[in-house]
Amino acid sequence: MGKQTSTYPPEEQRERWKKRADELNMSMSEFLASMTEAGLKKFERDVEPDFTKAELREQRADLLDELNQARNRIQKLEQQVYRGERQAILDHIEDNPSAEYHEILSHVQQTAGKRLTDHLDFLTIEGEIESNTSEQYFVVDDDDGVE
Asked: What's the number of domains the chain is made of?
């Protein structure tokens, strides 16, 4: 049988120890002895990183390049889509000064078919979608070759 050793922790620390001992289904004596032994075991404080700083910088640079390429691609597509719609509105207003809202809306609706075809052609050429012209349906191109 071992010798008794006493400790006098502050009340909140003792309560925290008691709660943890109860969670582990241990007496306070068992808990303190096991935690003391665990603290005495040798372990390395220094942890070897998975990557060197140079490798992390290189990965960061690669990811930033990919991000910038994606942003440029998105911007290009948005410009293509919005330019067509906005340009149709601007053209109509230039041709019809002081055009009212309902007139502009009617023009956009009447001419949307051609712009839709242009957009679908563009997306097909860009490889964003594939089309089956015989059945007139479109699907997103899942052949995701990263640019």
From this structure: 2
Please indicate, yes or no, if residue 89 is contained in any of the structural domains.
Answer: yes
Diameter of the chain measured on Cα atoms: 103
Could you give the angle at the alpha carbon of 81 between the alpha carbons of 79 and 84, nearest 5°? 95
The pLDDT tens digits of the residues spanning 62-118 come to 999 999 999 998 888 777 766 667 778 888 889 998 889 999 889 888 887 777 777
Question: What pLDDT shows up at residue 57?
Answer: 94
User: Same domain, yes or no, for 125 and 89?
Assistant: yes
Location of structure tokens 């149709």: 88
How far apart, in whole angstroms, are the C-alpha atoms of residue 136 and residue 21? 70
Q: How far is CA 68 from CA 34, 54, 57, in A?
A: 54, 21, 16
pTM for the whole thing? 0.35
Tell me what pLDDT residue 15 has: 94
**In a shared domain, residues 30 and 65:** no
**Domain extent at residue 22:** 11-39
Return d(Cα 146, Cα 143) in angstroms, integer: 9
Q: What is the pLDDT of residue 56?
A: 92
Domain-located, residue 113: yes
